[in-house]
Write a structure and sequence with these properties.
single chain, 383 residues, alpha/beta, 8-stranded mixed β-sheet, 15 helices, globular, binds adenosine-5'-triphosphate, binds magnesium ion
């Protein structure tokens, strides 16, 4: 079972003895978990979004259609956003070169200590660097529908932009495209599907981002439900890596499901802003989700609980919620139907249309706290 902060390692190795050697070195420890050993480099690019490794270890001497260092190059071109350690022999020295996608090197023979230290160090450096910059990815999630994810994600993005942060909002509700509905975006407005399918580069992004009158950029989901299946994990991962390079804050409005796509989005997030309301099924699902997150290996610090409509506790004692969550929720947002519903009905953010309202101040406070927390290494990459 994965434990909090366990590093998920993917090994690309076609020599069974070497794979066995690495497995043996990692046998009696729990800091690093080998997810899989891929023997065919040509399959690695497609399998990475599914396997969600934290670090990839590639044998420089890998044979087959794609050789070891070609695979490193390919992963870099595909912007998979996972650091790579190259395993080599003294006769074929390899230099660490992050610009070429080589974040660490291990030269045979190495000890278990060398392996664990190098993997841990490369993982930590990547995590602390926030994928090469100070950008923060915040996933607004909940294990229950209708608790305010879209409303809060939109207003949080605008509040972050008001603080001078370059912010992009990603419509992660791929099927129902909640932001399209909320913002009354024309059906022909471009979506993530208008990006080239194979090689997405930075210049392509500006063509497909929706510039909302509120001032933020939005990457919209497809305009029709059935188009959702055309959005691949690989495209989404790539797009998120690129957005991270261009924006200081990437905020994702998510759907409820815990499917492959959502797991990839949650993995990518530095912070999961998890909404909870005073409703017994929401609380039940929130506890169940906390358990799943523990099994996946997310650190508790990756999740920040937001009690939405916090003053509408419908008879549930806030102390009971704290007990159920196992901690005091980090943030509270007031319920202000008059302000929120009328802003939503006009497709405008209440943090702009009614900045003096209590609910606006609550969201602005969360934006300020998250952005400040993101500047400290712990919150920037906690998982
Ligand atoms: N703090 C609040 N005060 C009052 N009303 C709110 C508040 N937050 C959200 N709402 C209302 O709750 C309803 C649901 O909000 P929203 O659509 O954002 O939820 P969601 O979690 O994104 O739903 P879904 O699961 O369908 O994606 C909306 O009518 C919104 O106006
Ligand atoms: Mg929604």
């Amino acid at each position: 079972m994965a434990t909090a902060d366990q590093v998920r390692l993917l090994l690309v190795e076609d020599v069974p003895q070497v794979a066995q050697y690495v497995r043996g070195l990692l046998m009696s420890q729990s800091q690093i978990k080998i997810l899989d050993v891929l023997t065919d480099g040509s399959k690695a690019v497609d399998q990475i979004p599914e396997l969600r490794p934290d670090v990839i270890l590639i044998d420089a001497l890998l044979q087959g259609r794609i050789k070891g260092l070609q695979l490193v190059k390919r992963l870099q071109e595909a912007a998979v956003g996972v650091p790579v350690i190259v395993l080599t022999v003294p006769q074929q020295p390899v230099e660490v070169d992050a610009d070429r996608g080589i974040h660490g090197v291990l030269t045979m023979p190495f000890s278990g200590y060398d392996l664990i230290t190098r993997v841990g160090q490369v993982h930590k450096e990547h995590r602390d660097s926030g994928d090469g910059g100070v950008s923060q990815t915040i996933a607004v999630f909940a294990p229950k529908g209708g608790v305010g994810k879209t409303t809060i994600a939109f207003n949080l993005a605008v509040a972050a932009a008001k603080l001078g942060t370059r912010t992009v909002l990603v419509d992660g509700s791929i099927q129902f495209a909640d932001l399209r509905a909320l913002l009354r975006v024309p059906a022909d407005a471009p979506s993530i599907l208008d990006l080239p399918t194979d090689r997405v580069v930075e210049s392509d992004l500006s063509e497909v981002l929706w510039r909302d009158p509120s001032g933020i950029d939005i990457l919209l989901a497809p305009p029709r439900i059935e188009m959702a299946e055309m959005v691949t994990l690989r495209d989404m991962e790539k797009v998120l890596s690129l957005l991270r390079r261009l924006y200081d804050a990437v905020i994702i409005d998510m759907s409820v499901a815990l499917d492959e796509m959502n797991l990839a989005l949650l993995d990518r997030a530095d912070t999961i802003l998890e909404l909870v309301t005073y409703d017994s099924t929401t609380i039940h699902n929130t506890i169940a989700l906390a358990d799943t997150f523990r099994v996946i290996g997310y650190s508790p610090a990756k999740v920040r609980y937001v009690v939405n409509r916090a003053d509408a506790n419908a008879g549930i004692d806030p102390a009971d919620l704290t007990r159920a969550l196992g901690r005091v929720p980090e943030h509270l947002i007031r319920s202000e139907g008059g302000v929120v519903v009328s802003a939503n009905n006009q497709g405008v953010p209440f943090v702009l249309s009614n900045p003096g309202a209590g609910v606006s101040q609550d969201v602005e406070q969360i934006a300020a706290q998250l952005l400040a927390a993101g500047r400290t290494p712990v919150a920037a990459g906690a998982r």
